Amino acid sequence: MPVKVVLVEPEEPMNVGAVARAMKNFGLKDLALVNPGPRVGPPFPPEAFWLAVHAEDVLEGAVVYPGLKEAVAEAELVVATTGRPRELYPAPLRTPKEVAQEVQKAEEVALVFGRERIGLTNEELDLAHLIGYIPTAPEQPSLNLAQAVVVFAYELFQASQAPKDLPPKEELASARALEDFFQDLGHYLLEIGFTDQNRFPYAMRRLRRIFHKARLSPGEVQMLRGLLHQSRYAMGRKDGG
Asked: What's the predicted TM-score (pTM) here?
């Protein structure tokens, strides 16, 4: 499956080893680490391999990135996971099974898991097209990192084995292209006074969600960026620029 599992700032090498094993159990091989802790490789310490039973190749093939943007840049679908509902993303949070169905429609997917203690920041969640959430009993809502990975990996594997009756996969804009568009859009919003610096993060977060739902193609992103560029040009001519 073309799914990259991305771990943001993992701190425990044994957790990464357990994640590698969970990935190998369900046919996932592409592991990415974003700014891993000092004891987390590569090169990995021996304790990472203690739990990566028969998944040493997953560990050895892990790629390190300096930031999440770089890790997901080429993905058409970025799925971030959270351990709790958040006001900024009230609905719909997707269960692992629902995420797995969406993954079947995309060519390149990044499945992102946050830090062991605090998960993902709101700014990191902004990069995601979908937010995945594992429903749990309220008296013990948190899952170990490897446990969370295995739940999603299982559902991805199950969906990949099911008889296919899906429409042809559509070409979607990469995360890198979308981030370039959002940067243009943010500058434009401030230029026209749609929002101010204080309200800007909230406005952009809402607009990101709208455009992520649209599942834009590369051509559509280019058209939107062209629209912003032409609008700036027209405003400059009107003002005598």
From this structure: 0.86
